[in-house]
């Protein structure tokens, strides 16, 4: 790939399936490089495409359904007559804040349901009531006079914020204490739809779901007394008008995505243990739980194995079928889809293999899922009666360039005998190729079977890319993820060195004398660490990194619990900080950061930059305005291109390709 090939990426989201199982609708997002914005359209896809002479390729019958600026989050009504979705009318200002629309499936124009006057910060994904008469959703409610609710009050003229909680801001959102998310219900067919605010108070709410009888709502919230200093949350139920709110879980878990069972008597949800302190989050697997819908702070039952099954799909809601609950879980770089029986028995595999199932829906015996592979950003597949069929070809334009390289699997062992798993993306030609060790963030995350634009662009420029899932990563069990706690740098480094050594030993076309290291977030932490504790790399790129755990503790939106959870007490944080070894860094270092990064604030980059500059180390700081922690994945298209250009220029200067 070339950086400009980002404009060819077509990324499908989570599909919705019509009640009869015959049609799927999915939002497909692309980068509009000319407009410097993201665009989204809804596509309609028959699940059993047929032509005059029999079955045809699904790609021939998939077609655009909407043509808005950015349409997302489609949802079929249970009666099949309507499609609800979110539409952002433009790329900036109030027009970029999505509102609810409904589209008649029998033909006709989309009708706007909510407005910017009702929701100045936009509405959330729509959820139909089972009787197809109402929509529930979540939307942030700004305090009066803030966030443009008064045209005569500019942001710099707003009154000061009185902050009393540790959880007052969030990367990618900003301050949250004065724009809490609440649950709303609306009749989309009313002549003048007026949304009813169901929840209230100084609480966050998320993940609304309907009961089968349309008489109850479930949602998640943290309303307990210690919510400002722990990670616990609960599932609540109430009537659609907000009356009789009732907590059904026991404030022992961090919870999300509730869904009622078919009979309405059980609520299924995602949860993870956080220990007696409410802060023991490191490498805790998110699993599937169940609790009676009529419970009063009941004890949830875990239905998936705590040690081995970690939730990994991005569906955004729990999908309940007549036979069980669908659950996507991480597995050695894959995301397998399984059907978990209602009683928590052995999960039945549905979609497995060298791929990731990232979104799915099911109806009338048909499952439709968005699936990625090492050389695909995602296609829709349908499963009916155990038979799988590919429905789309959204990646065809990129594939036709011939510039996408399939990753090769690597398996080796660390010096202590521990298994290490990863991948190699090789460039064209016989070599010798310079090598980049690419390190993922998290650290409880995984590289795997999905198209990673980073690796593809670097391989396209002539670099062999080694990437893997060392200890600390997810997808290999809780013990694997927790192995680096309080010793992050050295334990991860052993696995990363082993993976790089293995790639060099088994692929003679790789040049061991021209190796660089790079990564973002935790990958940036490890890049700075390796630069100060190893002499095998010619140059490094540390991006949006944690470099100093002491200041990260107070400056990051999550630092108040994350730093101690991973790095330990103050003394260990000081020892473990990559900045502590900055005096030993002698290789050229490019530091990339975003001005509005609240996850790893910009001071983390500035402290490293100054420390290296004062010692005369060749160092550059590339600073992006207006961007947060997710620049490389969802930043402005022009910034993503500029970032790639700067990275390729840096490597060309220090690891010149042939």
Describe the structure.
An eight-stranded mixed β-sheet has the order 33-34-36-35-37-38-39-40, with helices on both faces. It is built from eleven helices and 40 strands. Among the domains are: 305-373, no CATH class; 405-654, 3-Layer(aba) Sandwich (Rossmann fold), CATH 3.40.50.1820. Mean pLDDT is 96; it is low at 52-56. A hairpin with an 8-residue loop joins strand 24 and strand 25 (301-302). The two termini are 17 Å apart.
Report a brief summary of the structure:
With 658 residues, the protein is an alpha+beta fold. The chain is built from 11 helices and 40 strands. The longest helix has 19 residues, at 488-506.
Output the structural class.
alpha+beta
Oligomer: single chain
Task: Compute the number of strand runs.
Answer: 40
Mean pLDDT level: 96
CATH superfamily assignment of one domain?
Alpha/Beta hydrolase fold, catalytic domain
**N/C terminus separation:** 17 Å
Please list the strands of the largest sheet in the order they lie side by side.
33-34-36-35-37-38-39-40
Q: Looking at CATH, which topology of one domain would you report?
A: Rossmann fold
User: Which overall shape is indicated by the principal axes computed on the Cα atoms?
Assistant: globular
The percentage of residues in β strands lies in 25-35%
Q: Based on the coordinates given, report the CATH architecture of one domain.
A: 3-Layer(aba) Sandwich
Q: Specify the helix fraction band.
A: 10-25%
What value does the Rg take, in angstroms? Answer: 25 Å
Poorly predicted tracts of residues: 52-56
**How many helices does DSSP assign?**
11
CATH class of one domain: Alpha Beta
What can be said about the biggest beta sheet?
8 strands, mixed
Keywords: Aminopeptidase, Hydrolase, Protease, Serine protease
Protein name: Dipeptidyl aminopeptidase/acylaminoacyl peptidase
InterPro entries: 6-blade_b-propeller_TolB-like (IPR011042), AB_hydrolase_fold (IPR029058), Peptidase_S9_cat (IPR001375), WD40 (IPR011659)
Pfam families: PD40, Peptidase_S9
